[in-house]
Amino acid sequence: MSRMRIMVLALVAPLAALAQQAGVPTEWDVQKMVTAIAAQSARLQPLVAEIHPKDWVAGGAPDAYIQQWDSARSQADTLKVSSDNLVREPSRLTAAFDTYFRIQNLEVSLASLIEGVRKYQNPALADLLRSVLSENSSSGQQLRQYLVDLAAIKEQELKVLDEEAQRCRQAVSRPAPVRKKSGN
Prior knowledge:
Layout: H1 3-21, H2 27-49, H3 53-58, H4 64-88, H5 93-120, H6 123-173
């Protein structure tokens, strides 16, 4: 292993300890939280499949419900995929953001659709959808806090790495000391 790698690892190791001290959940806790999000999204998929907005439109409901349903169905599917990716790599900031934004999009997509379910199809299904969605909302808040903490840690890591890179550049760019010749 090169000296540079050893130095970088020596600098990053304390940051990992700092992350745990700063309240960032452990990888295990993050995987558990995201697994719960994936399970909740998996519970939403068959419920969304039970929604039949085309029947509502035939009965006089606005066409917009069909688009909302398509969007909600798509968001539920992609949230499952996204959360599965985050379970595999819980420290990837992009995976965490993707999952968080998909939760937000699903909530928006389902909000008015649930009212359509209540009005045009089945109030019990609307209540069930709202219940599962609120479970996801709680997990989404935990994920949001994790994102804030993870971003702070990543910023700190980058700062330390940048400072070390600057120090290394200075060391490399210094002129070599002039050696005096030993006299004969």
